[in-house]
């Protein structure tokens, strides 16, 4: 769908959108005929940054005033304008992405018809394919996260990986059953209470030339989180269909990497489980052995995401990748600290941190670095095992979760952990309420920067 909304400008009939900087509005307005000035005054359009007005001349025209042309400059118009074809008077730049994302609709469960498309013409033909790929990847994250848990379980995540592999010539390996219990005991423990049709598994996709640098992407795939025996209240469980948001991000980033044919050996890992409640559910106080070897005293069955990620990270590290990126809807503490818009970034690699933070600014996809504070590592101490999964007290919850994960990443490998929310609690232009991608474009930009020119 996205490719139909952004097309090369070959002089087709189209309505005009005029983009202006705030200081250019008054000179522009002075050059307009009286009927245009009257129409804008009637709409109380003052030229304030971020505003827009629509006026009738020979056809529908639109004026947008922006303090800068960013990814969301045209997003509101993409939602508000009548169906039709438009062109921007001047350069579009990154605003084309917002035009596409502003028309995203999740209609799987709707019977009503949606509005027709708004097509944007651009002279920047070289940027069309990349912009469409970014919009499609973001839309895929949104679709996966918005889908109800009854329609998206571990098997459906496996199907998504299989379809992705077929599209790009990758291979998929799935570990389940006895092999999962013996080889990935933490993943098995978390998912063992689910019904047979939703049994836990580790999904691995491999793509690319083995001679190229190895990059691992890991995504938390908890398709629904009851909290386990430490059951969540109903309000806390309401959005837990989104607890596979990390897996959605990792899948979408893998899709971008393969579509761009970046010269990397890609390894995608998705531990897919349902944290269910049954007689065989793992319990508070159980001591679990990890794939890496260290034992974990389970102090909270609702801190299950870090357990499944631990086994997946250990597996990723066995092939000595140059870089590991993991995505997880991991902690409420991250939302308390930074709110829904800013995913915390955790890494000990100063260069990687700088690259990701800079890319976040450049891509209008910000992250905020929180510390892997060594002083809090002792909070993970256990009286009977090598560590606990969730310290008592709740202090520095996002940090201690990241410190737990760090124990399963081999030293010397560049690693970054993104504690993404994967959900937008209220709509913004180009970003409807519901599932959403965070740090996806920033991470992709860093991968292109590091490997795209090799």
From TrEMBL:
Pfam families per UniProt: Peptidase_M17, Peptidase_M17_N_1
Keyword Protease: yes
Molecular functions per Gene Ontology: aminopeptidase activity
Keywords: Aminopeptidase, Hydrolase, Manganese, Protease
UniProt entry tagged with the keyword ATP-binding: no
Domain (Cytosol aminopeptidase) ranges: 300-307
InterPro entries (UniProt xref): Leucine_aapep/pepB (IPR011356), Macro_dom-like (IPR043472), Peptidase_M17_C (IPR000819), Peptidase_M17_N_1 (IPR048816)
PANTHER family given in the database record: LEUCINE AMINOPEPTIDASE-RELATED, PEPTIDASE B
Family, similarity comment: Belongs to the peptidase M17 family.
Protein name in UniProt: Leucyl aminopeptidase family protein
Lineage: Bacteria, Pseudomonadati, Pseudomonadota, Alphaproteobacteria, Sphingomonadales
